[in-house]
Design goal:
The protein is mainly alpha-helical. 83% of the residues lie in helices and 0% in strands. 22% of the residues are buried.
């Protein structure tokens, strides 16, 4: 069994690095910036989705869909909180 390493695999590894970095950031910071946290998670999910559309793994693709949806929810929540604080 050989591992096909191509541009889509590289994109997937960058996405993986984004998600790991976001988790590390959440763990290290006492009060993480939600835009950095959720933006990095969304970027990671998007990059992994690109990779998974070529190297299909359905369970992982579904996971990335939920991961992206949660990140978008977090960004919307942060934007609403910012608008509420400004009012």
């Amino acid at each position: 069994m050989s591992f096909p390493f191509d541009i889509y695999s590289a994109v997937g590894f960058v996405g993986t690095a984004c998600i790991i970095a976001a988790y590390a950031y959440l763990t290290i910071k006492d009060q993480p910036n939600p835009y950095i946290l959720h933006g990095t998670n969304l970027t990671g999910a998007a990059l992994l989705t690109i990779s998974l559309l070529v190297h299909t793994n359905w369970p992982s693709l579904v996971l990335e869909g939920f991961w992206a949806a949660i990140a978008i929810f977090g960004l919307v929540k942060a934007l609403r909180r910012r608008k509420g604080a400004a009012a």
